[in-house]
From TrEMBL:
The keyword Zinc-finger does not apply. Residues 38-228 form the Ketoreductase domain. Putative oxidoreductase. It holds the Pfam family adh_short. Coiled coil: none annotated. The lineage of its organism: Eukaryota, Metazoa, Chordata, Craniata, Vertebrata. One of its GO terms (biological process) is lipid metabolic process. One of its GO terms (cellular component) is membrane. This is Dehydrogenase/reductase SDR family member 7B. Gene3D superfamilies: NAD(P)-binding Rossmann-like Domain (3.40.50.720). It comes from Larimichthys crocea. The chain crosses the membrane at residues 6-26. Belongs to the short-chain dehydrogenases/reductases (SDR) family. One of its GO terms (molecular function) is oxidoreductase activity. Keywords: Membrane, Oxidoreductase, Transmembrane, Transmembrane helix.
Length: 239
């Protein structure tokens, strides 16, 4: 993770353990379908949890499509991953697709670009997200809209654009990185908690609707991980 502060080693170990857990869940949930050579799409892969997921999946021999808004930051991740390849496991140079999740009009085009990389998507990890801290009385409605665009509308638009290709193949796994705040709302996190509650509800509905097509849906709800997102100063001491 970038910009680790003092005591970051423990947080890095905890975050890596979380990503390894995610990796193991995916392996367990896809019996008979080893992740090696699978096509895994990760949004928000330029930093934090997404970058760490990219590192673990790359080392496992996965064909990665890394997504983000900043081409230069993503290219740096690709270079780091390529340089870290040891040779003991066949690895693939990750592809990148640049788009802004908050601009849902561009998501269909981005989904087409993602599908062009390898012709299919086995696992979609909806990880990108933004945070917000502030009391409700001082929070303009536009802030709630901005957080919802990135954390809720973007991921659901991308999921819906990629779903038909998964349904055609009767195979796929959709993962979303929500938050413990998608289950419990706490003061000063109204926009963020609301966006993650909406995310939890949407993907719970989706799981029930598409199970019959052979597609799995997993919502991950992490607690605190020290990253750029969580490193912003807390408001009145709330995380
Ligand atoms: N850190 C925690 O304590 C914690 C706890 C629970 C859940 N989570 C969740 O974990 C996920 C990852 O967060 P993180 O902590 O790893 O934060 P991070 O280091 O800030 O990473 C966020 C990523 O999202 C991307 N992103 C942000 N807005 C975007 C947009 N409009 N379009 C496309 N990409 C966008 C960023 O890419 P660019 O800026 O390069 O485009 C960046 O790669 C988030 O969904 C967050 O809610 C985090």
């Amino acid at each position: 993770m970038e910009r680790l502060m003092g005591g970051g080693v423990l947080q890095l170990l905890l975050a890596s353990a979380g990503v390894l857990l995610l990796y193991r869940i995916l392996v367990r949930l896809r019996p008979g379908a080893p992740l090696k050579d699978a096509v895994v799409v990760i949004t928000g892969a330029s930093s934090g949890l997404g970058k760490e997921c990219a590192r673990v999946f790359h080392a496992a021999g996965v064909r990665l499509v890394l997504c983000g808004r900043d081409a230069a930051r993503l290219e740096k991740v690709v270079q780091e991953l390529t340089a870290s390849s040891t040779g003991s496991q066949k690895t693939y140079t990750p592809s990148t697709v640049i788009f802004d999740l908050a601009d849902t009009d561009t998501v269909d085009r981005a989904a087409e670009e993602i599908l062009k990389c390898y012709g299919q998507v086995d696992v979609l990890i909806n990880n990108a997200g933004i945070s917000y801290r502030g009391n409700i009385l001082d929070t303009h409605i536009s802030v709630h809209r901005d957080v919802m665009e990135t954390n809720y509308f973007g991921p659901i638009a991308l999921t819906q654009a990629l779903l038909p290709s998964m349904i055609r193949r009767r195979s796929g796994h959709i993962v979303v990185i929500s938050s413990v705040q998608g289950k419990i709302a706490i003061p000063y996190r109204s926009s963020y908690a609301a966006s993650k509650h909406a995310t939890q509800a949407y993907f719970d509905c989706l799981r029930a609707e598409i199970d019959r097509h052979g597609i799995a849906v997993t919502v991950i709800s992490p607690g605190y991980i020290r990253t750029n997102l969580s490193g912003q100063r807390c408001h009145r001491g709330w995380l």
